Amino acid sequence: MRKYRPLAMFVFVGITAVLASPQQPVLSDIQPSVPGDMDAALKASHELLDAGRFRDAEIELGVYLRKNDLSAEGHEMLAYALLRENKPKESLSEYTRAASLHTPSSRMLENVGQDYVLLDDNNDADKWTLRAVRMDPTNADAWYSLGRIRYTEQRFGDALSCFQKVLELSPKSVKAENNLGLAYEAQNQTDAAVTAYRQAIAWQDAGPAKDISEQPLLNLATVLVHRDMLSEALPLLTKAAKIAPQDVNIHEQLGHLYLQQSNFAAAQQEFQRACELDPGESRFHFLLGQVYRHLGRRELADAQFAIAGQLARESATPKSR
């Protein structure tokens, strides 16, 4: 989305200058007059960030920075809060201010990359995340982010290498192993993908129950459904649906599974749920129409096919600017 590009170029003049100029002052060079309660204020904001209370942290840091604009840490913390609130333009502005006060860290550049991901600017996302891993090759999170960006860019071999690097730095990382499976699958190495998904599931089953993700369950089950291994796929999808009942992809795969079993009543429920969760997706209405046709409910089938056709035409029509 190039409409953000001019802003992005303007915002990061500051960070580019910091990286290019070793003479740029760092926070330790600055001796502002700071009220005695500022450290306590930053600590309180840290606690809000750790608790996931990003809006509250934004408010507290805004108050803090009005009194102490020379705090690089404060600006960087605010930038992170804004990133987590899905406010990438505002976050980039705060990262630029932080970079004017001290040399950016690998973690800061990684988060800058994530801002550009939110702005749908993969070129800049890739550029800043690559700088993050070059600055600190031991930053496993940055390698993971780079892998996700490369996967989105369909550079699957590069993505595979990134996820392998994450696993070197952070053994038994479930998300890295799961994404390793996605990268294998994208390169038609399905057996290797299945092995990776199974490994990710085994690792998370051995860990805390609160950390279990539906994603490797869904990814493995999807492959198994395509292989007609329905009896093994069903419990995986059932468990995934309990973990993430709002995930439309799980309901779609359950619908396909029941359709292959000729369990049309169960398939109807799943595709209806998919339509409720994402009413603008034409394929869910088409699949529901197919199920109604199998059930002999011709009028309902025709209605769903009509909705699917209308949505498909709308998606194919260029939107006016």
Describe the 3D structure.
This protein has 18 helices and no strands. It has 321 residues and is an all-alpha fold. The longest helix has 19 residues, at 298-316.
The secondary structure category is mainly alpha
Cα distance spanning the termini = 13 Å
The second-level CATH architecture of the domain at 1-17 and 40-118 is Alpha Horseshoe
Order of helices and strands: HHHHHHHHHHHHHHHHHH
Which band does the percent of strand residues land in? under 5%
| Unreliable stretches | 1-14, 16-36
- Text of the CATH class of the domain at 1-17 and 40-118: Mainly Alpha
- Shape descriptor reads globular
Number of strands: 0
How much helix is in the residues? over 70%
What is the CATH topology classification name of the domain at 1-17 and 40-118? Serine Threonine Protein Phosphatase 5, Tetratricopeptide repeat
Total DSSP helices = 18
Q: How is the biggest beta sheet arranged?
A: none
Work out the radius of gyration. Answer: 24 Å
Can you say what the CATH homologous superfamily of the domain at 1-17 and 40-118 is? Tetratricopeptide repeat domain
Overall pLDDT level: 89
